[in-house]
Structure formats: structure tokens, C-alpha cells
Amino acid sequence: MKRLLSTFALAGAFGLAAVGAQAAKLDQVKAKGFIQCGVSQGLPGFSNPDDKGNWTGLDVDFCRAVAAAVFGDTTKVKFTPLSAKDRFTALQSGDIDVLSRNTTWTISRDTSLGLNFTGVTYYDGQGFMIRKDKKVNSALELSGASVCTQTGTTTEQNVADFFRANNMQYEVIAFATADETIKAYDSGRCDVYTTDRSGLAAERLKLTNPDDHIVLPEIISKEPLGPVVSHGDDQWFDIVKWALFAQVNAEELGITSKNVDEMLKSTNPEIKRLVGTEGKFGEGLGLGNDWAFQIVKLVGNYGEMYDRNVGPDTPLKLARGTNALWTKGGLQYAPPIR
Amino acid sequence: MADWVEPAARQGRTSLMNDPKVRSIVLQVVALVLVIVLGWMFIDNARENLAAQKIATGFGFMENTAGFGISQTLVSYSETSTYGRAFLVGILNTLLVAVIGIFFATIIGFLVGIGRLSKNFVIRLICSCYVELLRNLPPLFQILFWYLAVLSAMPNPRQSISIFGEAFISNRGIVVPRPLFGDGTGLVLWTFGFAVLATVLLGAWGRQRREETGRPFPMLWIGLGLIVGLPLIAMIVTGFPITFEKPELKGFNFVGGMRVIPEFVALTVGLATYTAAFIAENVRAGITSVSHGQTEAANSLGLRSGYTMRLVVIPQAMRVIIPPLTSQYLNLTKNSSLAVAVGYPDLVAVFAGTTLNQTGQAIEIIAITMGVYLVISIITSVIMNTYNKRVALVER
């Protein structure tokens, strides 16, 4: 239903709007006073509402970082829960300003949907989860298995590729939402549940007996997850892109939400440029020069955001791994602020 | 209305502007042109805007490789097939649910509807409960109940319920032996076709004879004998060419045989029982609309109550039943789009779901999907309206 509405909105937006006559996204956002951010319908660690409707998670915190940069206020953001199927239509039709919903960056999504990926908030890969009592130790032993997955995701294609490449039989049952998928797996309809490995860690918490299930060692795909904006507004694209870069740079420079106020007095030129005491980099984005300072003060650097939501001390217990900074053997790397 | 002619126009004294017929035609043409021009502008503008945003448009995507698997396919399909093929698979899966669902909804609906008028208190109570319970709960809820509650009670394939070691019921669905057609199958199929044709012709003759002479013809038994007996004789003559491949448990699942997936069962059972509750009420309304005098007349002629129902009451009740029944058939077909909730690969799940997401061509795909439902609904309506004309009371 949501998808249908979005499609009509899309058809309306493109059918009725005059060609190329749209106001700048930053001005639109400032005028309405908040950022509309598309998130998942509930994925612990990434975007998950509690019983009072407060959202937490890595993807949610990233939206707050953008709000901190634009408004200096993390409350000026509203969340739209979207299923995997509806997410792109919602962005194309302008229902949301940013999509931050564990979305895999692929060439077809980047080039044919009218969207731009702004970076990678989480480097992930697809894996399989299976009951321990099936006594399977490798994904290569899965021939003939029934596989549960969510429709409208890259996982649906990856699983087809994996089984075909290894000449194995399989049956895929695709559900509309993550909740229905995990319920069907829990009820025994499928032998295997597949999604990104971070998703497996999160969804596993919803099972009746999480300890009866194991995640198989194979990683069958590359899933760089990141925020997405629409084509056609380079300034907005830059803002969302640099919000993440600021967080990664802050971690690299050792700036945290706790010490950022002291860092204002720092003499290190790199730190001075980031917190805005030197140069006018915020102006280039159409923001105040304290844009990165606000992000770090109100949301934290990338490492803080990671540890708070998905790190080893959270129920998800995900080690930094590939998401560590490049200086520590990981892939997180940001261009310099200068 | 058509016969009514404005006196002034007949006399040709006023200008064409005041001729209501001409005026209405002109207005309609103008309105039509306006709608077409606006529609065209809408499409053209949308295309220009989409192109400006570099969003892919057009129907070329139908030729591209789909690259995803589908759990139930009535025609051959693999991951290397095109989106066009996946579209066809989706339509057929939707039609399968619609046809099987309508079949069972009609049978259950008629039985429950007649049961609600039964003289037996227990039957009446059961049927009333059925109607009130099922039509007052949302269909999505019922489908999820059949899928999650019933499915989780089913054993896994290794402990599946065996029916004489031939068919197996588990949480992977129902597996039955698959027929393999050897030499001589042609003859068996031909005799089967002949038997069906003979039964239809014989039935028509029997009905005509009954109407002329009043003597009933035991059509049910003779037809059954023809349809079962003739092919059986052909099978014996050709030495049983049809063999069965038994399903075997291998690894995770059953290999071989034919499988009815639980998603299909849950969706079809859910829709059929839900729609049957509405059909039952239509049937009850139809039957009560037939004046009681008809039943009394039939009774006084000595007809047994079964015959009274079948030959006197139901044919007259059909006039009232058919139009709302058509609506229920259309509802069932459209409600089949709830399939995606239980992972059944219908048109909406495969085409307006996965395909839309992989290609991102929302406007084209939603338009095609709406078109398909429209066509299916119109065809259903045409068939039902034709049938309605046949059973309608002929008035002079």
C-alpha cells in the first residue's frame, strides 16, 4: 500500500512538476525545519524504535548527524520506516530527504534509479544462519535447502548467484518484511535464513532460542551499506557525504563528543579545520563553519557511533573488523578537510 | 430516451447549437480530447523529468535477465530467464490461486449458505458461527493464521506425516508422487477426453428427456462410470503406461514427486474460507428470496426435499445470487495480492515487488500490474454476466 502511494506520488511529482524547477534541497529542509529520514521498519543496531517510539541505531544516528550539521540540533529529524521494496520510490518521489536504511551500494542502483550513494557507513557481506541441529558447518553443504529472505534486496540475487555458481539446488521464499521472514524461519519453513551478516546478528535476537542457531562462516557477497540521496542537488549530496567524512576524520584525529569542547583550543591545524576554528569549510556546504563540531558534539565520531549501536558491548556484539579505521587495518577512510 | 426527439430539432427551426443531441456529442468529443491531451502531457512531462534525473524509463527492462529464484513456477523458469518470463510466472501464480480459491469458495459457500437454512439446529448454529467468525476477521490476519499457526504445528521433513508411504505432509508442504507418461499415454488421454465429452452430451440429452417426459436420468453414476471406467480399460489395454515417481527424502528436502508449497495452501485456504462466508450469505439471501409457495408446490407434487432444493429453489435463487457472487469472485482475485505477506510468488510479489525493486521502474511496473488486474477482473465479469443472462428471468 505504501509502495502504491509512493508510486502515485512519484507519478504525480514527475508528471505534474515543471521540468528542472525545484528549489535547492537545503533551502527546502531549512524551510520545513526538519530532515525527513527513511529508515528500516525495525532492525536492532541500525534503526529500531523502542516502545515509546524513540529510534536508535547506526543509521538513525547518521541522520541525526546530518541534522546536527544543518540545524545544530539532533531532534530536528523525523523518521519514516520503509520496507526494502518501498525505500527507493520514497526517495525518488521526495517523501524523504535522506535514505539511511542499511542499503547496499551497487552500480545499477547508483545509475538507473536516479540516486546517489554518499558513502559507506558499514562494510558488510551476506551470510547464512542455520539451526545447530542441522549439523551443517559450511554454506557449501546447503544443496537442496529452503532459503528464507526478504524481497526487494540484493540478498535475493546473491543467493541465486551463490547456489548457481556452486551447482546446488535450492528453494527461495521471499517475504515482504524482515519480521515475516524471521518468523517463517523460526517456524521451520526454511532451513536457512540469509541476509547481511550484521542483519543476521540483529535478527537472531528476535528468535525464540537465539542460541540454537549459528551463522555459517562463508561471506558470499560485498555489501557496502550507506546513505542515499536523490539526483539533481549536488549541494545536498555534498552535505550528506561530508557528514560521514567528518565523523570518520574526527575519530582519526581523536576528537570525541567528550573532548570536542577542549579541541576548540587545539593548535593542531587539522583539528582546527575540522572544528571550524580555522578556514571556512562550512560555507562551501552552505552551512555554518561549526558544522563538523556540531556533528561530533551532538552525535559523536564514527567509532563512538559504532560502539554505541552495534559494537562488542551491545547485544549485536559485532567486532570492528573491516569497519575499523584505515590506520587500524580497516576500510573506513575519509578525504581530508582542507 | 433514445426514442425521444426534441420537437424543435425535428422541425429544423433552431440552430444546431440548441440541438441537445448534437450538443451532447460535441461536448463529449471535447471532453475526450481534453482527457487525451492532458494524459499525454502528463506522460510526456513525467518522461522528461525522469530523464532529467537519469531514472531509467521504458519497457526495455522486460528483456533483461531476472537473476532471482521463484519458489513456484507453472512454466519453465530459471534465474537466467527474463523479467518478461518472471512476469508471466507471476500472472499464472495469481490465476492459479484465483481459480482454485474461487472453486473451493463456491462449494463451501453454497454448503454453508444452505446449511444456515437447515431445519437442524446444530447445523444451523455451526454455519452461523462460520459466517460470523470468518467474515468479521481481516483476510490478512486469516492468511497469516493459516501460514504461521498451522505451519509451525507441522513436523519437519524428516518427521513428516506419511500417507501410505506415497505422499508426505511436512512444514515444506505436501509432496505427492509425480505421474510419468510412458508410451501409450496418448490413448488413455484420448479415451478420457472422449468420456468427458460423452458425459456432457449424455447429460444434455438426459436433461431434455427429463423436461419432456419428467423421467429422471441417473447422470451422476453413469458419468462417473464413463470418466473412470473408460480410461481404466484403456490403461489395462496399453499395459499401464502411466507410472509414478515417488518423492524421496534427500538431505534437507524431498526430491522428486510434485510439491504443493505451504504458501500456496495458506493463501488459497485463507482466501477461499474468507470469501465463502460472504458467498454463503449471498446464497442464503437468494434462497429466501424464492417464495415459499414454490417449495410447497414442489412438496405437494411429491418431490423429495433434495430435489426440491436442486431443481426448484436453487435455479430461481441463482438470479439473485449471481450478481453479488461475481463481486465476491473479483474480491478473491484482488485479495490474492496479499500473497507477499506469506511469501507466495504471485504477480504483486514477483513483478511489482522484486522486479520493481531490481529495475526501479516503478511507474511502468505499477501501471502494467494494475492493467493485468483490470483485465482479469473484466474477463471474470464478462463470463459471469453471460451466465447471469442465461439464468435471468425472461420477461416479456
From TrEMBL, chain A:
Domain spans labelled Solute-binding protein family 3/N-terminal: 34-263
Annotated Pfam families: SBP_bac_3
Cleaved signal peptide residues: 1-23
InterPro entries xrefs: Bact_solute-bind_prot3 (IPR051455), SBP_3_CS (IPR018313), Solute-binding_3/MltF_N (IPR001638)
Keywords: Signal, Transport
GO biological process: amino acid transport
Family per similarity comment: Belongs to the bacterial solute-binding protein 3 family.
Protein name, as recorded: Amino acid ABC transporter substrate-binding protein
Species this protein is from: Ancylobacter defluvii
